[in-house]
Amino acid sequence: MRLRHTRTGICQWIDKPTDFSYAIVSYLFEAPRDDSSRDVANREMNASIAVRSSVGSSSAKEFDALSPMAQNACRLASVSGYDYVLLERCCSFDASDAKRLHAPSEMWEWYACAGTCYAYLADVPAEDIPSQPNSSFRRSNWHEDVWTLQTLVAPWNVVFLARDWSVLGTKSELAAVVEEVTGVDTAVLKGERCARDVSVARRMWWASKRRAALVEDRAYSLLGLFGVKMSIAYGEGLLAFMRLQEEVFRVTSDQSIFAW
Predict the structure, then answer these.
(1) Phi and psi (nearest 5°) for 22?
(2) CB 4 within 8 A of CB 85
(3) What is the DSSP letter of 86?
(4) 162 Cβ neighbours under 8 A, 6+ residues apart
(5) Residue 237 and which of 77, 110, 162, 175 are 20 to 30 A apart at CA?
(6) Cα angle at 100 between 95 and 105, to 5 degrees?
(7) Which pLDDT score, from 0 to 100, does residue 210 have?
(8) Residue 1: pLDDT above 90?
């Protein structure tokens, strides 16, 4: 996995999540509405991923070349005592097909081993009060994405951040609210119960409340949650979910799987 050094912004390949202490910053890109806005989004993503360096350039220049999102993530992790940070949408697995195709199932371990996972909610203002019935926190798109489910339940510590990077609270502190919004049990959010010990049907229900840009992601995003691996083949449509069910059936005796 490529993690960024928090002081230089340079990406470094880390073989195992247990090799170094690191933080994760999870955030969402808004879906582009047209080709022109999609190009802008792609340029922003590429700027976050690539280290635009040249021979003899200083680390300060490397850092300045990063997007504001990547810079803020590095600063936050550095202040919190971490030398490395993984940006959920910015750092990626090795480009080789063998590693890329297993990335979704491997991500669970990286989340679980992270010292802290920061969930950056760009649609929540600093003055928001999450517990309020109509809070922006409750309506945040972050809670609705299929990929952020494992980001929520795998790490032992998740800290929610407002759009100005101020702290809204941890998943343990906000467990009651988060359960109301996502359906994920308070015991899981507080670390009193392992997510993988929850019934298959219950975990499937958590995911059913979320949205996916591609139909296959409804299956691929759950590989870590169910502790299974399978090949990734975008274009297979609903077959992906059927294959997921088959893999889950192989590793569990939980009969609640038949509810799905």
Answers:
(1) -155, 165
(2) yes
(3) E
(4) 121, 124, 125, 126, 128, 168
(5) 110
(6) 150
(7) 94
(8) no
